[in-house]
Amino acid sequence: MKLEEVEAEDNVSTVVQFVLLGFSELPSLQGFLSGLFSIIYMVVLIGNSLVVLITRLDPALHKPMYFFLANFSILEICYVSVTLPRILFSLRTLDRSISLVGCATQLCFFLVLGTTESFLLAVMSYDRYVAICKPLHYPLVMSPKKCHQLAAGAWLGGMPVQVGQTWQIFSLHFCHSNQINHFFCDIPPILKLACGVTSVHEMSVYVVVVLVAAVPFVLILASYSKIMGTILRLPTAQGRTKAFSTCSSHLLVVVLFFGSASITYLRPTSSHSAGTDKLLSLFYTIVTPMFNPVIYTLRNQDVLAALRRLLLKT
């Protein structure tokens, strides 16, 4: 594909259109990958929509825990829709070009929704902390008004930071190449294309990651340390099992999301490789959202019971 560029004021050629290389190194598998990602997208849409439907229709699930779970499922649908439709378009049409504005828009939505997921997972762990460690105060602390405020904070809290970070990254000149060796516009491969020294921008990325990912993760660990202490002090094995079952699915999602995302963004740029970055990104942008409905459904007896009631009605 032809490189499009304009002449900047300082006589440096600046890219105005990018090419997402994606999986172009696997030409014989384009059809297979298109079919595979189409199936994954349908599973994500159906699975997460089903969770939202169940939590809205079943009165037994009108609780703060399932209110946040419904928000999380809506978020996963949005999160996957930022990247997967673009991947499918490239695989089917072989048109991998994306404008500078389109790339910036995709990155901005990706970062904002990723931050929302980080905050929402922290909110969900706080909900479990109050439910298990302070059960008598739970109805008062997690009132409907408080739940809506926490959800709104999770959705909107990271927006100013990530919009600012996107503007900062795309204020750079890109003169090395217009080929992004990734399947979507992400920070590490974009910074590789920038002219000059990018160490200041890399440092700002680390600072933002600490604010929007490391801090929520520490809060989650603190919540679960309190939760585990309370569970171990419960008098009956049945009580311990029930309390742990309500937390284990959430804890598994936390490990999957924060583990893969932190490896991607906290590694030095020099240690990044295209293959590893694509694999890690596939994991936390596509694979994890696909399995989240399964994780939350199969490990939660209330959701399973609600699903059975819904199936019996239909």
TrEMBL record:
Highest classification ranks of the organism: Eukaryota, Metazoa, Chordata, Craniata, Vertebrata
PANTHER family: OLFACTORY RECEPTOR
Main location: membrane
Organism: Sciurus carolinensis (Eastern gray squirrel)
Alphabetical UniProt keywords: Cell membrane, G-protein coupled receptor, Membrane, Olfaction, Receptor, Sensory transduction, Transducer, Transmembrane, Transmembrane helix
Family: Belongs to the G-protein coupled receptor 1 family.
Membrane topology: Multi-pass membrane protein
Residue span(s) of domain G-protein coupled receptors family 1 profile: 47-296
Signal peptide from the UniProt entry: none
Gene Ontology cellular component terms for the protein in this record: plasma membrane
Record field: transmembrane: 32-54, 66-88, 100-126, 203-222, 243-267, 279-298
Family matches, as SUPFAM superfamilies: Family A G protein-coupled receptor-like
GO terms of molecular function: G protein-coupled receptor activity; olfactory receptor activity
Protein name listed in UniProt: Olfactory receptor
Cellular location(s): Cell membrane
